Amino acid sequence: MEFQFYWLLLLPLFFGLGWLAARMDLRQLLSESRALPSAYFKGLNFLINEQPDQAIEALSEVAQSHQQTTELHFTLGSLFRRRGELDRATRTHQMLLDRSDLPNDQRVAALHELAQDYLKAGVLDRAESLFLELKGTDFETSASHFLREIYVSEKEWGKAIEVAKKQTGLNASKLLNRDISHYLCELAALDYSHGKAMQADQYIDQALEMNPRCVRASILRGESHFKEGRVKDALKEWLQIEKQNPDYLFLITPSVFSAYKELGQPDIGLKLLQDWLIQYPSLELLSQVYQATIEHQGPDAALALAKHEFYNSPTLPALSKYLEAQINVLGSVHHLATHDSGPLVHNTDRSDLELTQKLVHAQVQKQALFICHHCGFKARQFHWNCPACGHWESYSPRRDTDSEDMASSLVRM
């Protein structure tokens, strides 16, 4: 196509039209901004500066004088709920629902917010009914999540399973299957406690079908078999945990050793536990294997174990166990010596060790905690379900401790 010079005459025209459109948009923007009260901009400024109290006060003033500011009401409701002012949050969202001119998409959004207000306020029956109304809407997935939260808190495990299986559009299907397996384990534990082993075993089978790595299912069925005297069957269940997730072995270590003792094979059991400690070292396993060793082989063998673990991995927990082992050996030596040829160990030596061990143990107890990787909640004992945020298997099976550097410095001294 050949260039025509008269096309150049169109350039000023296009420029003029663009300038006119920009002026019109600017006038409209200025007009809308003048219509907004100054309290609105004050509220935004407070929000930016993380001053929620002042922001709520300013935005509430705007909301009272401009009843049609829908988005502002949503913002206020969320702020109220975040600050724990649940009555005000509920009134704000209910006010939106009561408006006859509210578009359907905003009505559904207001219903979703109001349901969350009731959930946080602990009015679970009202929250449940509102979340159920959101079926078939854009908020169905979110509502299903909150419904499961309600059913878990009420221990309605059957309803929780039903809702979870209907959930769609989730990318984390493995996490969903993991949660369902725990709901099934809760039902199994309940049936086991009421002597309904056959029904409980069915729940365990379903749990393992949903999540083959469900350690909890193997633990529960193993415990049931052991109580029934089926020791070999119990061991079969417990020993597969090493393949499922060896980090959880500490949950069944004492039971495994008891099972081998029942079978008259404590040596095999202790050797297995010591192999686990070598392959999967942890604070929990060290404590349990140490206890089994001192019980079956005596304080000298336990001391050798504790010394090896401490020098191999110098941490405060290992140091505490090493000191405890030395105290036990001194105690046994002192006991023998006082009955033979007079005391061979001074009481002050043992007293010094006991004092040191108590101090180290106290520090370990303070530092070695199970920590939820989702919300950071700390606990002294392991939980399958976080008491704070409600997530399943969010606790690492290994207790966190920052004591390595301190113990290493002690070894170098």
What is the helix tally?
A: 21
Instruction: Profile the largest sheet.
Output: 2 strands, antiparallel
Derived from helix and strand composition plus strand pairing, the structural class reads: mainly alpha
| N to C succession of SSEs | HHHHHHHHHHHHHHHHHHHHEEH
The residue ranges in which pLDDT falls below 50 over 5 or more consecutive positions are: 22-35, 39-48, 334-346, 402-413
Principal-axes shape call: elongated
Beta strand count: 2
Beta-strand share of residues: under 5%
What would your notes on this structure say?
The longest helix is centred in the first third of the chain and has 26 residues, at 10-35. The protein contains 21 helices and two strands. A hairpin with a 6-residue loop joins strand 1 and strand 2 (378-379). By secondary structure, the chain is an all-alpha fold.
Distinctive features:
2 strands, single chain, mainly alpha, Serine Threonine Protein Phosphatase 5, Tetratricopeptide repeat, elongated, 21 helices, 413 residues, two-stranded antiparallel sheet
